## 1
Amino acid sequence: MTVRPEPNLTCEGECRVLQTEPFARTHMLIRRPVAEVFEAFIDPAITSKFWFSRGDGRLEEGKSSTWYWDMYGVSAAVDVKAIEENRRILIEWPNPVEWTFAPRGADATLVTITESGFDGTDDEKVARAIDSMGGFTMVLAGCKAFLEHGIQLHLVADHNPDDHVS
């Protein structure tokens, strides 16, 4: 929607205003049973094969965990808000991130990841949502390769090799 600037707005000519808050959403069909795909995101021993370097414990509702990307020298505190076995995971890190797991027959699962609550200016929120969507798309591609074929693609590590600290 295009509006004319009000006196307190600082823009040249016409301003564009967000109609809804930006969010990131991506999804991927993984040809493995839902219980196996769900477990891959709950157990850091599995998740570390396609996303982060290590985690300090399984995700459990009401508890916190820390995920580490050792190659970049960063970590993230994760607060687990909800777990519905084989259906849904909801965390905050600090934004809310939700995974949903929908069986597609006995041997496939559609995983959807949605992140919301981005802060900043409208342009910054949109940029963060786009970046998040790209990141979670890589995570799902890595998960698919690992669970379906046993291949570790190292997508996250190879995304920014010049930023490695070790």
## 2
Amino acid sequence: MLRVKYGIALLIALFLVGLLPLATFAASPHFISASASDPGGNLTVTFKEAGLGDTVLISYEASANGTAVYACINGGNKHPKAANKETVSGPVSALGMFSSDKNGTVSASLLIRPLSQGSFTCPSGQTLVLAFVSYTNAGIADTTNNVSQGIPGRFSECLVDPALGLCS
């Protein structure tokens, strides 16, 4: 009787060990698509990833190099030719967590906001505006599975009247 119990336990153990490689290789995370657009000064990174397994929580980071031009506009909607303009550049990113569907895919978007103007302010009677944004080297990374996808191109948008000379 004892020999039968050990035999059954051994068979179950071998069965489970045999399934381990299948579970390990069943998920093969990869990006099917990744794109970016820049409506309203933000960068929206949209992506689809597959090969994740069913209902798995995945962490993502969308990133890019960003440039933002802030300026002061007077009451006549003009930009005085003084030095009241500030350009800031640096890395920007957005984080998100999404659960894969029953087919092992995630389709989502992350919104990257422009860099802050920092301590730049306008004199009395002028309004601070975000005049221009540009993003390069955009990409999306699945930080759970160490998979990433670059998004080629330069995404830029002029948010004021181009005649003001603030968009380049």
